[in-house]
TrEMBL record, chains A, B, C, D:
Residues holding Fe cation 1: 8, 39-40, 175
Official protein name in the record: TIGR00282 family metallophosphoesterase
Domain of life of the native organism: Bacteria
Active site: 68
UniProt GO MF annotations: 2',3'-cyclic-nucleotide 3'-phosphodiesterase activity; metal ion binding
Annotated binding of Fe cation 2, by residue: 39, 67, 148, 173
Family as reported in the entry's similarity comment: Belongs to the YmdB-like family.
Amino acid sequence: MNILFIGDLIGRAGRKVVSALLDSIKYEYGIDLVIANGENSAGGFGINEKIYKELRNKGIDIITTGNHIWDKKETANQLDEMEYLIRPANYPEGVPGAGFITVTVGDMEITVINLMGRVFMPLSDCPFRVFDEIYDKVSKTVVLVDFHAEATSEKNAFGLYVDGRAAAVIGTHTHVQTNDDRLLPKGTFYISDVGMCGALDSVIGMEKNAPINRFLTGIPSKFEVEKKGKMVFNAVVFYIDKDTKKVRDFKKIFKVIEG
Amino acid sequence: MNILFIGDLIGRAGRKVVSALLDSIKYEYGIDLVIANGENSAGGFGINEKIYKELRNKGIDIITTGNHIWDKKETANQLDEMEYLIRPANYPEGVPGAGFITVTVGDMEITVINLMGRVFMPLSDCPFRVFDEIYDKVSKTVVLVDFHAEATSEKNAFGLYVDGRAAAVIGTHTHVQTNDDRLLPKGTFYISDVGMCGALDSVIGMEKNAPINRFLTGIPSKFEVEKKGKMVFNAVVFYIDKDTKKVRDFKKIFKVIEG
Amino acid sequence: MNILFIGDLIGRAGRKVVSALLDSIKYEYGIDLVIANGENSAGGFGINEKIYKELRNKGIDIITTGNHIWDKKETANQLDEMEYLIRPANYPEGVPGAGFITVTVGDMEITVINLMGRVFMPLSDCPFRVFDEIYDKVSKTVVLVDFHAEATSEKNAFGLYVDGRAAAVIGTHTHVQTNDDRLLPKGTFYISDVGMCGALDSVIGMEKNAPINRFLTGIPSKFEVEKKGKMVFNAVVFYIDKDTKKVRDFKKIFKVIEG
Amino acid sequence: MNILFIGDLIGRAGRKVVSALLDSIKYEYGIDLVIANGENSAGGFGINEKIYKELRNKGIDIITTGNHIWDKKETANQLDEMEYLIRPANYPEGVPGAGFITVTVGDMEITVINLMGRVFMPLSDCPFRVFDEIYDKVSKTVVLVDFHAEATSEKNAFGLYVDGRAAAVIGTHTHVQTNDDRLLPKGTFYISDVGMCGALDSVIGMEKNAPINRFLTGIPSKFEVEKKGKMVFNAVVFYIDKDTKKVRDFKKIFKVIEG
Ligand SMILES: [Fe+2]
Ligand SMILES: [Fe+2]
Ligand SMILES: [Fe+2]
Ligand SMILES: [Fe+2]
Ligand SMILES: [Fe+2]
Ligand SMILES: [Fe+2]
Ligand SMILES: [Fe+2]
Ligand SMILES: [Fe+2]
């Protein structure tokens, strides 16, 4: 069972690079399931039904999100039409949408859990404890976690906390791929951040001048997705062993194409 | 001219892995200058004269730091004895210590500037503008920057802001090596974070149970450097062309040894 | 039933001003129950059994706390000896200590709940929902809340959220008394912050030079309780009507004595 | 010389309460100069030329602002038409607008400086040092400071830092009036926060349900100015002695009218 996890898709640029590369990567690695973080897929901020369907049509099976999930006003009302989209499970009780999803791929049951860190992030419930609660229900399936967080300390701590329980913990949110992909001591596949799909020479996917100006002046301005220049496709591919339900092989993908 | 930049050394574990690997790496790559971030080199928090001398004796030429520079009470009074140690240059005027240093290596003048980000970090002056001021004075030398910061947006923005002026921008502070090492459009060598030297299966170098417990309970407790298990040596090596004063070749190092 | 709620006691200065004024204030207002926030009562940081007993001997019946509750290492192990001390109830499950206490005063049952905000504060569970859970258990008693929080938006929102359920919401943590004491539309007595007991011309109770220097330089240093100069006693006194179980009269106290 | 300083005006509600009360308050106290913080005067977020003129027509002489100054896109281009509006002086060099203004009232020269704190606030330059620089230029005039900040520690520290130099330091930003108005040891009139003009039973001026819901769910939504219910007018009035150029008398105003 080969799984491809793609980092935060940044607006049109992110969708374009997926169009350009996904089919060939799926073919090359014999991918059985594609997961991608879509929290920035609509204009860099949020996601809606239209973009969701576009992503599904491109070959993405499950879409995770993060703190930007509610950026588009229409999203909350469209959740019923987005069956394979999940949002951080540690939003409080009563918040619409699902925080995890279990799918059957071949003869394997796979659960994808979306969680959000709390350090330097919006308010949410404890992701460690919410993992425990969900894990109790799905521990017989293969458990994959998109841990959407800022601080490396929280990401490291979460990985080690669920080590041996989750098959994989894939970090998202910083939009920069880390080089620490490995198996943790009890076998969980871990990477602090898988990175993004979008313009390479940008400020985490955005055209550079607006954010640079903001750092220089403190004056807010509209950030636009960078659509020119080199484009990066960031992902990890990993193989899950049928018998152990654990990751056996894994590989980071950092592919650059001309924009 | 080959330069080795080593990520944050985490206490005894970081110093040990440097002892084990530095000489052979210097030999292997023909290193002419060794820079390392030492803000966590004394018990995980700060640095002092004793540790500084130990690091210099191990073969580190220049020591940069960051937000942890003042963790040990004695540091401020020992600055005169630590000639090759710099602290973030964007601490306000009047703060002791130097924020950059120019050294002559062979026939090349090299300036190392230490700067600190402001997003999710302690208060400091604007690192973008402080770079401009220092650059005016040292623009004829080869300029290397240790940009010690948390947010990838600020790191990306800073790299693009100084692109073509600094020969290299090496990020530190997150203790996790990123996979985005590259030459920016105008030739600056850039990596968001070079990573650390310390225990691999840890919480950014610290024994995992105390930080995990803190995330679970909110109760603070003493964090200890993890001294057992696999140890990682994180660095980048890059070659500076004599004529262009720019980086021509570069390579991340992520070496693991048994603890 | 007259209740006196005293703001954060700042170390020796705070204890001293309580010694000087509490007895006469109790007499003047015919106080039946004294509550005080003690999170800074031991040297400005935390509380322990020794200080707890001193405060109880001075005539304080119930001691609430906040984010500084764990500053002294011994506190967690001494909780059994501090029967009338509570800590924020929205610390996660499993954390030692009680988050609320019900006492009988005359023929009235009074519950004091301690909660902590989350905006600009350490990680904790949602104080709004934790209030709901506790309120379900104690709604037949008179419910008083020490809402220990930084942001006025969160304090305002909490007050209006529990309006009509809690008899009183008294804010703490900023150490500055606010002038917005009033009855909310459904009858809850509310003040954003009751203030502190400690040195008036200080930085929230601390000697001014260390914090000013920190703002100027970014260099951390030890903060000491200010023990000289004018001392302020900040509190609110309110009368609870036996029949309605609501607050009928209330009054802020801002008394200054020579140090 | 009697000066009236009015706290943050919250949208239409704030303007309405000013219309209702300003003339009579000016008359009652014999006010010579009216200053108000207008950062929330346009729909709760920002200010523009239209609202500026409305406020001037109502009798406000000088308008200070804060972190919300740039919320309306048109503001930066309209600064030339808003001669008596200032923005925080510690925005970096090159940012449009003025950070202080000197006016002549009767035979007194009065400088109003606007500064913004940095704790829990957007990035800006050090307000302590920027005060020093401006003070050097205007020390012969009567210096008043609107210190727009969140943390009471930073407000206390700033007040004591400029004590004896500024005639008055009036805090803004939290929208809740504090009860600590007093003369500091060297004579500066100080209040941590003057409060706001807007709906009393609101979340710092906003209709309560949207912010309460956000605290409960983490889902962002549009905040609207509360326009119903009781309205509060928060201000301070102080008298400046001609000879000493210091504040001699002062008084908080907390006036409530039916909405
Ligand atoms: Fe993202
Ligand atoms: Fe995100
Ligand atoms: Fe570090
Ligand atoms: Fe650091
Ligand atoms: Fe306190
Ligand atoms: Fe506190
Ligand atoms: Fe405001
Ligand atoms: Fe503000």
